[in-house]
Design goal:
By secondary structure, this protein is of the alpha/beta class. It contains 11 helices and 8 strands. The protein has helices at residues 12-21, 39-52, 60-64, 79-86, 104-116, 146-155, 169-198, 201-211, 217-248, 254-268, 278-288; strands spanning 4-8, 28-32, 55-56, 69-72, 95-98, 120-126, 138-142, 159-164. Strands 3-2-1-4-5-6-7-8 form an 8-stranded mixed beta sheet, sandwiched between helices. The longest helix has 32 residues, at 217-248. It is globular, with a radius of gyration of 20 Å. The N and C termini lie far apart (50 Å).
């Protein structure tokens, strides 16, 4: 059993991993999340630390001291900042597992920071929602230290697959997949919200089902809208990274950029996603827009 693992960021992904590890969890898990610095969220974070039985730290120096393995699980727009902030405190040869949904260029920049500090950077792509799979969610890893990461992740009963020996290979697959997955979310939201407001949603869904009977459009639309309502802010940050990935390849990133706008807009409504019904969720969003 591993003795010590640290987390930078302790949101949905981190808590899913820790919960899933069960009796394989390390003897010590130390954590720092910037939300503990905000009085509005500090109590929530402290309660989360207690619930997961982890050692919450008041700063990165305390959380990362002598930790041989560090999971970086922050929002996509904070991944490089997290690496830069943590670099002075990581132990020599520590594995930095960058699980954030970032463009390859962002990950390569973070890799340079961690390598300069004496750490071993690994590009990790989380390829599906962490719930309900938790630690069994599919992972792609790449970079010169990918095999070392596979050994650690496998010991934690996780599901890593090596995508290559270059930082950016795993994240490229993740980002370009997201153009489709998150783009489909934005398309279904635009279609069904407009159809609902126009009063023709039943007819639009009937037409879609006639054209593609293999898809339960009400269920898919409800699920996609729920993802955006709850996780849209985080997904928007990811899609801006996806847009950067596409643009760096010399292609137009219009679709990815528009997807980020929709994700942000729907998340900003704060509409409740409790009802598992497309019409009710659409109405909740439309009332707030």
């Amino acid at each position: 059993m591993m003795d010590h693992i640290a987390f930078v960021g302790f949101g949905e992904a981190a808590t899913a991993f820790v919960t899933g590890w069960a009796d394989r969890r390390p003897a010590r898990i130390s954590v720092f999340d910037t939300k503990t610095d905000d009085q509005a969220t500090r109590d929530v974070m402290l309660a989360r630390y207690a619930d997961q039985a982890v050692a919450g730290a008041d700063g990165l120096a305390e959380a990362l001291a002598v930790a041989p393995v560090i999971f970086s699980v922050v929002t996509a727009d904070r991944a490089l900042h997290a690496a830069r902030s943590a670099a002075p405190f990581i132990a020599p040869d520590a594995l930095w597992l960058d699980c954030n949904s970032c463009a390859p260029e962002t990950k390569r920049a973070a890799a340079q920071v961690i390598a300069a500090a004496g750490g071993r950077y690994v590009d990790v792509a989380v390829m599906a929602p962490v719930h309900p799979q938790k630690n069994h969610v599919p992972l792609l890893v790449s970079g010169p230290h990918a095999q070392a990461a596979v050994a650690v992740l496998t010991a934690l009963d996780m599901r890593p697959v090596v995508a290559g020996d270059t930082v950016g290979q795993a994240s490229s697959i993740k980002m370009l997949r997201s153009v489709m997955i998150k783009g489909m979310e934005a398309l279904t939201a635009e279609c069904f919200l407009a159809a609902r407001r126009a009063g023709v949603d039943d007819a639009v869904i009937a037409s879609l089902e006639a054209s593609d009977p293999g898809v339960d459009w009400r269920r898919r639309g409800s699920y996609n809208l729920e993802r955006m309502m709850i996780h849209g802010t985080r997904r928007a940050a990811e899609m801006r990274e996806a847009a950067a990935t596409v643009a760096a390849l010399g292609l137009s990133a219009r679709m990815a950029a528009a997807t980020a706008d929709w994700q942000d807009q729907i998340a900003a409504t704060g509409a409740s996603a409790v009802a598992d019904d497309l019409a009710e969720r659409a109405d909740a969003v439309l009332q707030k827009l």
